[in-house]
Structure formats: structure tokens, C-alpha cells
Amino acid sequence: VKSIAVLTSGGDSQGMNAAVRSVVRSALYHGLEVHAVQRGYLGLITDDIRPMDLRSVGDIIQRGGTILQTARCKEFMTLEGQQKGAENLRKRGIDGIVVIGGDGSYQGASKLSQQGIRTMALPGTIDNDIPFTDFTIGFDTAVSIVVDAINKLRDTMTSHERASVVEVMGRHCGDIALYAGLASGAEAILVPEVPYDMDRIAARMKENFEHGKRHSIIVVAEGVGKGDDIARELTERTDMDPRVTVLGHIQRGGSPTHNDRILASRLGDYAVRQLLAGDSGKALGIVKGELTATPIDEVIGAKKPFNKELYDLTLRLSQ
Ligand code: ATP
Predict the structure, then answer these.
(1) CA of 246 to the centre of ligand 1 (A)
(2) Is the pTM of this model over 0.90?
(3) Cα(75)–Cα(126) distance, rounded to whole angstroms?
(4) Has 154 been labeled as part of a binding site?
(5) Which residues lie closer than 8 Å to 315 by C-beta, 6 or more apart?
(6) Is 127 among the catalytic positions?
(7) Residue-by-residue DSSP string for 180-247
(8) Predicted ipTM?
(9) Is 120 annotated as a binding residue?
(10) Which residues of 39-180 form beta strands (DSSP E)?
(11) How many helices (H) and strands (E) does the chain have?
């Protein structure tokens, strides 16, 4: 490869900018030309592609969102759209690309590599729902935001001796709820991977209150249900009157943590080195501290294993 491109796609996440910066700077370091595609796959089709230099990624490592913007693009799901995208790259002499996004974006990346463009996919999503990497870019920041919010809620909940239900992101993967719940000392953590028993949760909360507990926090991943519904189920079984907080898109914003910046920096540079080595069609990750490259199609077909060890720990500690 002599010339590569980078794009961000799907939902944005904190650290995408750090990944873009890493791809651009590493490519230039290795003597490659590097381009940015604006608005994900949409920009590939509309030919919204521009050359990048060292300074075009200055002052972005600390910023949330993505300077390349992102879009959902239906047209790229068609063969014609994919061919058009690949053609727009080829006519500029670009023969490699780094796609930063979630599982949908991985499917697009797989299609692009089938069109003969050397492709690397990086996990950019707050949900941590991509297998073959321990963490996705943005997850660590999202968890810290939730923990920070729960710290604040705890102050006021303790003053009023109230229970609090906090709804967090995670449609199929409960990792944000799990990690943030564990880190903030939640009393119950509801994740899509494990069925919950409200009778048991309510009974335990009642007992804990009788034994002097003065705050109760239930963290619920959106994939389990709405915070309001969980609060109603609790009210039906206890005399608690829980307050509901839906954190929503706040979880996707803000400056990335050092963990996310480092993860993004390592993966961006690794993607460039893999392309230089002639590799293609790989999804990159870090597993137990080691950089890994797995065929994208294998990653698309797999489900992220649930961290049962952490979940069981939360059960032992939430008394
Ligand atoms: P998040 O997990 O944060 O929602 P995502 O990457 O999964 O991010 P999607 O909207 O699912 O977000 O996908 C992003 C884009 O990837 C889509 O808008 C589309 O352009 C492309 N894409 C998704 N699925 C396919 C597919 N099967 N074939 C080609 N392109 C696809």
C-alpha cells in the first residue's frame, strides 16, 4: 500500500479522534499518503475525501465525538453502493482503509475488503459489544461518566433515604451496567445477559434497608427495559419510591479517559502496520494486553462472552 484512508462510522464514541490521529500520524511516519473520509460510508459514496497532514489531526486527542463525523448510510448496504465507494478510493490511488465503528460498521468493512480494498476495522463504540477485544474505544469513558453520575445521585439519595434506578446504554451487551454498577457499589445490576428476579431484588433491598442501608442504586441496561418500568416493578413490591435517571447520550460525550486514548492510539498505529504488511479483512483488538488481528467475518459472527466472574462478584458485594 502507498495510500490509505480512515473513516468513522455508526454511533460515535470517545476516543475515535485519538484513533484517527494515530492512523494519520502513523501512516505519515511510515511514508504513506493518508486521507480522511467524512461522514463514514456516506462520504465514501459521495466522494467526500480529503488528504490529511500532521497538523490536520492536531489538538484532537482530548476531544469527544469525531472530527470526521459519522453517518448511517443505507446505500452502502447495496452492492452498487459498495462498488461506488471502492471506486472513489481507487481513483485517488487509495488501496487501504481503516474503519472505526461498531458491529454494523464491521459489516461494511467486510464488504469493502471484498471489493479489493485492504481493510482494517477498529472497535469504536461505547457498548463494549465487540468480541475478540477486551475493550472497545469509548467504553472506559462511558463507564466513568456513569460512575460519576451515580456518585452524585448517591449523595442526594442518601440524604433522602431513597432508592435510585439508573438506566444506562447497552442494548445487547450489559457491560456498561456491569462495570459501572460494580465500580459504584450498585445494589442490583440488570443486564440483558442474565434474567432478573424482581421479587428477590425487592426482598433483598427491603432487608438491606432494615439493616441500616441508606441508599439503594439499581443500574439497568436499556436492553433489559426502561428505568421507569423497573422502578414500577419495585414500587409494586416495596414501599420504596425510587427516582429514575436516564443517562442517555451524555454517556457518549466528553473527553476520553487515558485508557481510551491509549487503546485508540495503539490500535490506530497497529492498523497502519498491518496494512503495510499487506494484511486485509481484519478486525483489531487488544486481548490481555496483546494486540490481535482476527478475520472481520469471524468477529461479525461471534458474540462477546459475558464476564460472569465480575457479575458474580457484584452479587457477593451488593449487600
Ligand atoms: P453502533 O454499535 O454504535 O450503533 P454501528 O457501527 O453498529 O455502531 P450501524 O448503524 O449499525 O452502526 O452501522 C453503521 C453503518 O455501517 C451503516 O449505516 C451502513 O452504512 C454500514 N453497514 C451496516 N451493515 C452493513 C452491511 N450489512 N453491509 C454493508 N454496510 C453495512
Answers:
(1) 25
(2) yes
(3) 25
(4) yes
(5) none
(6) yes
(7) HHHHTT-SEEE-TTS---HHHHHHHHHHHHHTT---EEEEEETTT--HHHHHHHHHHHSS---EEEE-
(8) 0.94
(9) no
(10) 49-51, 96-101, 118-123, 163-168
(11) 11, 11
